[in-house]
């Protein structure tokens, strides 16, 4: 059986844990800013690559 790969989608709870944002609503607004930058539809997924590109964080550190 193959191991399950790491998750590739960022959710508001992930934004809260990574950035230290305390409020879920603020985390959702943050993801909306990322969607706007990448011209994505409302409610579409944000990938780990897009999150790292927007924030400037290194993917290796975010994956931990």
Describe the structure.
This protein is mostly helical and 64 residues long. Helix content is 55%, strand content 6%. The protein is built from four helices and two strands; from the N terminus they run βααβαα. It has helices at residues 12-19, 24-37, 48-55, 59-63, and strands spanning 9-10, 46-47. The chain has a two-stranded antiparallel ribbon with strand order 1-2. The longest helix is centred in the middle third of the chain and has 14 residues, at 24-37. It is globular. The relative contact order is 0.17. The model has no long low-confidence stretch (mean pLDDT 88).
User: Percent of residues in helical segments?
Assistant: 40-55%
Portion in strands: 5-15%
The mean pLDDT is 88
Number of H/I helices = 4
Main-sheet strand order equals 1-2
Shape: globular
Describe the oligomeric state of these chains in a short phrase. single chain
DSSP summary, beta strand count:
2
Radius of gyration: 12 Å
Structural class: mainly alpha
Order of helices and strands: EHHEHH
> What summary fits the major beta sheet?
2 strands, antiparallel
As residue ranges, the low-confidence spans are none
Distance between the termini: 24 Å
What descriptive keywords fit this protein?
single chain; 64 residues; mainly alpha; two-stranded antiparallel sheet; 4 helices; 55% helix; globular
Brief description of this entry?
This protein has 64 residues and is mainly α. 55% of the residues lie in helices and 6% in strands.
């Amino acid at each position: 059986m193959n191991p399950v790969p790491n998750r590739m989608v960022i959710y508001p709870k992930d934004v809260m844990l990574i950035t230290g944002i305390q409020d879920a609503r603020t985390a959702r607004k943050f993801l909306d800013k990322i969607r706007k930058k990448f011209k994505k539809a409302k409610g579409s997924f944000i990938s780990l690559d897009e999150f790292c590109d927007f924030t400037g964080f290194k993917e290796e550190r975010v994956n931990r």
